[in-house]
Design goal:
Length: 136
């Protein structure tokens, strides 16, 4: 593998590792903040991994329970009857979604794509090359 190929491969791996950790942490904070009525299954069962093969491609994988995706969907209006301060019965509509998936995934996809396209500068390549030389 040439030196340039190694630098590119290591750059992709670094970006995916940094952004993957940030995505995992930010999503975990939102889950802990928004979801007080469930067990910690959604919070605990979100493993992620970054793999890099001999090719230049890297792979970021995150796994969440199936119902985590459904929490983003805004439910249908539910009619709740309540009595206001003038003792008149009225109907309220209450809906709430828990944005714990789409907002984070698509926000981080954009950041990862931007950093992969424009982030490999001469300084970054020199830093990776220096790391490689100190390891050997």
């Amino acid at each position: 593998m040439s030196e340039l190929a190694y630098i590119r491969k290591e750059f992709v791996k670094q970006i995916l590792t940094e952004e993957g950790k940030e995505l995992h942490d930010n999503q975990g904070k939102a889950i802990a903040k928004l979801l007080h009525f469930h067990s910690n299954k959604l919070y605990d069962e979100r493993p992620y991994s970054v793999t890099a093969d001999d090719s230049l491609d890297g792979k970021f994988t995150i796994s969440i329970p199936g119902y985590g995706r459904a929490l983003d969907i805004k439910p249908k209006n539910r009619v709740i009857q309540a009595q206001d301060k003038y003792t008149h019965w009225r109907q309220r509509r209450r809906t709430k979604a828990f944005p714990v998936y789409n907002r984070f995934m698509f926000g981080h996809y954009y950041t990862i794509a931007w950093r992969l396209m424009y982030g490999l500068t001469e300084e970054v390549a020199a830093g990776i090359k220096k790391q490689f030389e100190t390891q050997q």
